[in-house]
Automatic annotation (TrEMBL):
This is Carbohydrate ABC transporter ATP-binding protein, CUT1 family. One of its GO terms (cellular component) is ATP-binding cassette (ABC) transporter complex, substrate-binding subunit-containing. The keyword Aminoacyl-tRNA synthetase does not apply. PROSITE patterns: ABC_TRANSPORTER_1 (PS00211), ABC_TRANSPORTER_2 (PS50893). Residues 4-236 form the ABC transporter domain. GO terms for biological process: carbohydrate transport. Keywords: ATP-binding, Nucleotide-binding, Transport. NCBIfam families: PRK11650.1. Pfam families: ABC_tran, OB_MalK. It comes from Micromonospora matsumotoense. It comes from the Bacteria. CDD domains: ABC_MalK_N (cd03301). GO terms for molecular function: ABC-type transporter activity; ATP binding; ATP hydrolysis activity.
Amino acid sequence: MATVTYAKASRIYPGTERPAVNQLDLQIGDGEFLVLVGPSGCGKSTSLRMLAGLEDVDDGAIYIDERDVTHLPPKARDIAMVFQNYALYPHMSVYENMAFALKLRKTPKAEIDRRVKEAAGLLQLEEYLSRKPKALSGGQRQRVAMGRAIVREPQVFLMDEPLSNLDAKLRVQTRTQIASLQAKLGITTVYVTHDQVEAMTMGHRVAVMLDGVLQQVDTPRALYDTPANVFVAGFMGSPAMNIKTVALNERGAAFAELHIPLTREQVEAARGEGGNDKVTVGFRPEDCDLVSPTEGGMPVVVELVEDLGSDANVYGHAALEGHEERFVVRTDRRTMPNMGDTVFVKPRAGRNHVFHAATGQRI
Ligand SMILES: Nc1ncnc2c1ncn2[C@@H]1O[C@H](COP(=O)(O)OP(=O)(O)OP(=O)(O)O)[C@@H](O)[C@H]1O
Ligand SMILES: [Mg+2]
């Protein structure tokens, strides 16, 4: 059991100018499941590898509990990592794969046996212990990789996209298994994914990164409800939030036919020192209604309707400040329009998100 602290930790790969991870400040609590999420190349794996000791820390420090591990070799850090490709030894049985690290450490045989069997029980791998990896399904291999990490009883688990080789259905199942296993074991876990659904459903807290810079870290709910900037707002949630930069006036934002009221403080903050005449406004697909033409919604021409069974996503476009802009609205099945229809979209009062047009920061 342990806490993890990144203290302004940076990694600049030799021959590159921009840090792959830039002054990362992040505290992870004892027993916490923290998910690192962000688009490809944002520095997730690098952050994880820095913690594992597989990558140099060029500036700042990393602590496990109070212990400064910044320059310790990987094996002195008491962590176990599960990689995307599992890296199982093909010539060894499941049992031997799981026992391998303990054997290297000269753990007594009886102790190895106890730990391997316990992990196999947790992961429902008992009946496969004598099989070779090639005789296992993708999901079973994934569980062996987890088992290998569990038997080491580390202070911290690190997982780098451990589900990306599984098909969609198995990924959903395994995601639940990993989350409940982590809860049972209570081992501090840092989990990397680029999938925001995985991040939202698995993490106690989620850290969102972009271009090596931590954007926001909070509970999934808080990230969704109060994204700190335009990037986080657009990244978390599927379909993505509708985010548009429009004209700002004394009373709010002019959104085509819609007027989105803003408080005086919001208008002032949006205007800023430079006297901005624009503001960025966002609303989630589920935070608007389709209304009748007389109720003053924004006319949106429907291009595509995605029937999800329980409800539907309606994709379309509207004219906004002389451009054609795309919108998506989540609607009830009963009010599902057809392609080519014009619907009238009205964001729900108080459910919009307002950002500074130049900095993208939440207002
Ligand atoms: N060994 C290396 N040498 C130089 N640059 C590297 C090296 N490894 C990674 N990078 C760069 O550092 C940045 C961060 O890479 P990283 O692998 O951490 O991204 P990631 O968020 O894990 O992306 P993905 O989702 O694609 O796995 C990228 O711009 C990448 O090109
Ligand atoms: Mg990666």
